[in-house]
Amino acid sequence: MKKLNLTKDQIQKLLLSSIGFIVLLYVYFTFFLGPLNRSRDSMLMSINDLQGKVGSSKNEMMKATNLENQATAATTRHAALKASSPEGAPIAWFPPRMKAFFANQQIDKATARLEGSIPFKEADLADWMRYNWMLDLPQTDFATLGKAVAELENTEPLLSIHRLHIHAAADDPQFQQVNLNVATVMLKR
Fold first, then answer.
1. Distance (Å, rounded) from C-alpha 101 to C-alpha 72?
2. Longest Cα pair distance anywhere in the chain, in angstroms?
3. pLDDT at residue 1, as a whole number
4. Three-class HEC string of the chain
5. Where are the domains of the chain?
6. CA 109, CA 137: separation in Å to the nearest integer?
7. Distance, CA of 40 to CA of 47 (rounded, Å)
């Protein structure tokens, strides 16, 4: 093997070059690469934070769209319910309407009388009133009554039956006497 003979001057140059190379590596990693890594980490955290915000914004936009669709449907339903409440005092049109309804169901001699009315306490329903009615059906059979009650609930969206009282007729057991307590919600006019 060949022995490397270096002079003192060459050793000093080699030592200074090595120290310079180490200083260059230190400066590179400390002043160039370190800030880049910190900047990259900061940007990754910002990106993750923004992606979370974008995701929650998409959820909020979907909720807003659903709420808008519900509001449109509710407005349409409210307009339809307002249109189903005829002009005039309910005492003038509701009893004839019920008499005609039950006559169409083959139940004769139906009568309706108003038991009372109550305004709604909720501010949103200030334009509406609840009317309680007693419907008397003096003679009907059970099957016809069942069909009529089902049809009544399906055709009158603002009417609800609170109580149904059925008595067997003493003179003709095939027929029953029926009292219905119903409530209607109507627009104040």
1. 32
2. 140
3. 60
4. CCCCCCCHHHHHHHHHHHHHHHHHHHHHHHHHHHHHHHHHHHHHHHHHHHHHHHHHHHHHHHHHHHHHHHHHHHHHHHHHHHHCCCCCCHHHHHHHHHHHHHHHCCCCCCEEEEEEEEECCCHHHCCEEEEEEEEEEEEECHHHHHHHHHHHHHHCCCEEEEEEEEEECCCCCCCEEEEEEEEEEEECC
5. 8-83, 90-187
6. 7
7. 10
135 forms bridges with which residues in the sheet?
A: 112, 180
Task: Show the low-confidence residues of the chain (pLDDT under 50).
Answer: none
Residue type, 95: P
Pair of tokens at residue 141: 């059979």
Tokens standing for residue 89: 């005092």
CA distance 107 to 25: 103
pLDDT for 17-42, tens place per residue? 999 999 999 999 888 888 888 999 99
The CATH number assigned to the domain with range 90-187 reads 3.30.70.60
